[in-house]
Amino acid sequence: MALERKRKLSLVVPLDGKLNILRIRNQLINSKYALIEIIALEKSQFTFASPLCLPTNHQVIYGFEFSIFGQLFQVNGRIELESNNDNEYTYKAVIKSEDHVDSEMLYAINQLAVTQNTEYGKLSKSYTPEPSSALNTVDLIC
């Protein structure tokens, strides 16, 4: 959940997103969408989980779509396999840079980090026992 040195935001609750294949080599494809769960965000990349084994060739270009606070982001990029555990694949999506999208997405990620940090603080406080002055310890000798 913490904002790390590389400005990576690990999400407490994953964001729902969609991906499709736009291009393989130089041929347009425009496949159907598949659902993904975004688990970490950065300005120029994000990490997502999927039950699908996806092609990670550098010649495959994907389209991604997800929403942060109601703002829809549509970006393109390629993916790299991070891990494969129990029929769930974790990928890193490297996004093609577009200045206007980059700045809007960075702003949304920062807002999400602030909101997530506030919610995490509230949640952790709810599990912290409050000091009780009414509670007295009595030693009994029998």
State the helicity in percent bands: 10-25%
Helix-strand pattern: EEEEEEEH
Mean pLDDT across residues: 82
Largest sheet: 6 strands, antiparallel, barrel
> Counting H and I runs of at least 4 residues, what is the number of helices?
1
Percentage of residues in strands: over 45%
Any chance you could write out the topology, listing elements then pairs?
Layout lengths: L8 E16 L2 E2 L5 E8 L3 E6 L9 E9 L2 E15 L2 E8 L3 H28 L16
Antiparallel strand pairs: 1-2, 1-3, 1-5, 3-4, 4-7, 5-6, 6-7
Short description:
With about 140 residues, the protein is of the alpha+beta class. It has one helix at about 100-125, and strands at about 10-25, 25-30, 35-40, 45-50, 60-70, 70-85, 90-95.
Describe the structure.
- By secondary structure, this protein is an alpha+beta fold.
- Helices cover 20% and strands 45% of the residues.
- The chain contains one helix and seven strands.
- The protein has one helix at residues 99-126; strands spanning 9-24, 27-28, 34-41, 45-50, 60-68, 71-85, 88-95.
- The protein has a six-stranded antiparallel β-barrel with strand order 1-3-4-7-6-5.
- The longest helix has 28 residues, at 99-126.
- It is globular, with a radius of gyration of 21 Å.
- The relative contact order is 0.18.
- The model is unreliable at 1-5 (pLDDT under 50).
Features:
alpha+beta, disordered N terminus, six-stranded antiparallel barrel, 142 residues, globular, 45% strand
